[in-house]
């Protein structure tokens, strides 16, 4: 039996690799937000099991020139949403009786994104466990030095994601790639609004069939690798015994 080796490369892109989204409206605030807010998660480490949540607010003066400030609430363990809503952000909670509906938000006049030394601000929920940041696997004790490395990783990734958007939205780049003019406004790394039905619950039967036909599956996702390796081997052994 001549086994031509064919490889199938399957990319399982995990959710939340980068899911920065511009938020235009917030419950509790009337009308569209009068500033630019982006929220999202950035995966930390190689496996990206740690997902840190951030709020990015653009300077209302000159975001391209103004510095980028990283705001970390202390604790350790307090969400930076505290800093955003209680200390120096463009929104604050309205002090009123809570009657079960979403508490109201109001604009502030003192926000560091619009007064004095104006800045673009990232409010980061860290360490993981604080605010909306979470981990997909149990994590042990952390420390200042571990957190410094994680925050550094966050900043580097955040900057790379910023650069990829600059690159793909550059007219010269689009020309070089022969992208048809006028077909796309803003390029975003992920589009979460594509109507899409996840109607294949498991891809295993398809891989099994491919394996029977002599294709080998290379699964790019660590957790799945050994699983498919086992399946691949099982079918190859079956083939061996049947021939
Ligand atoms: C995302 O996909 C939807 C549906 O195809 C499309 O209408 C929209 O323009 C896309 N958004 C971007 C930013 O490309
Ligand atoms: C696998 O192959 C068999 C036989 O060709 C076919 O009946 C079955 O539908 C295939 N399964 C999938 C998931 O493609």
TrEMBL record:
Residues annotated as transmembrane: 218-241
SUPFAM superfamilies per record: alpha/beta-Hydrolases
Superkingdom of the organism of origin: Eukaryota
Keyword Membrane applies: yes
Organism listed in the record: Camelina sativa
InterPro entries, per the entry: AB_hydrolase_fold (IPR029058), Peptidase_S10 (IPR001563)
Lineage: Eukaryota, Viridiplantae, Streptophyta, Embryophyta, Tracheophyta
Signal peptide segment: 1-19
Alphabetized UniProt keyword annotations: Membrane, Signal, Transmembrane, Transmembrane helix
Family statement drawn from the similarity comment of this UniProt entry: Belongs to the peptidase S10 family.
Protein name from the UniProt record: Serine carboxypeptidase-like 10 isoform X1
PANTHER family: SERINE CARBOXYPEPTIDASE-LIKE 10-RELATED, SERINE PROTEASE FAMILY S10 SERINE CARBOXYPEPTIDASE
Pfam families the record matches: Peptidase_S10
């Amino acid at each position: 039996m001549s086994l031509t080796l064919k490889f199938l490369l399957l990319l399982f892109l995990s959710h939340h690799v980068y899911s920065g989204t511009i938020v235009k409206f917030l419950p509790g605030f009337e009308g569209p937000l009068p500033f630019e807010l982006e929220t999202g998660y950035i995966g930390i480490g190689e496996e990206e099991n740690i997902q840190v949540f951030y709020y990015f607010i653009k300077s209302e003066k000159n975001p391209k020139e103004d510095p980028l400030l990283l705001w970390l609430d202390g604790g350790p363990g307090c969400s930076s949403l505290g800093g955003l809503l209680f200390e120096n952000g463009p929104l604050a909670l309205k002090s009123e009786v809570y009657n079960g509906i979403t508490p109201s938000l109001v604009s502030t006049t003192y926000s560091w994104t619009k007064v004095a030394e104006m800045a673009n601000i990232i409010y980061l929920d860290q360490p993981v466990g604080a605010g909306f940041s979470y981990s997909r696997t149990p994590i042990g004790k952390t420390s200042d030095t571990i957190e410094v490395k994680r925050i550094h990783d966050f900043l580097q990734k955040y900057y790379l994601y910023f650069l990829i958007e600059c690159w793909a939205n550059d007219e010269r780049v689009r020309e070089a790639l022969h992208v048809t003019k006028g077909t796309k406004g803003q390029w975003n790394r992920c589009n979460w609004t594509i109507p899409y039905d996840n109607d294949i619950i498991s891809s295993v039967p398809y891989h099994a069939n491919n394996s029977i036909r002599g294709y080998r599956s290379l699964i790019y996702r660590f957790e799945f690798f050994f699983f498919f390796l086992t399946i691949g081997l099982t079918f190859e052994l079956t083939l061996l015994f049947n021939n």
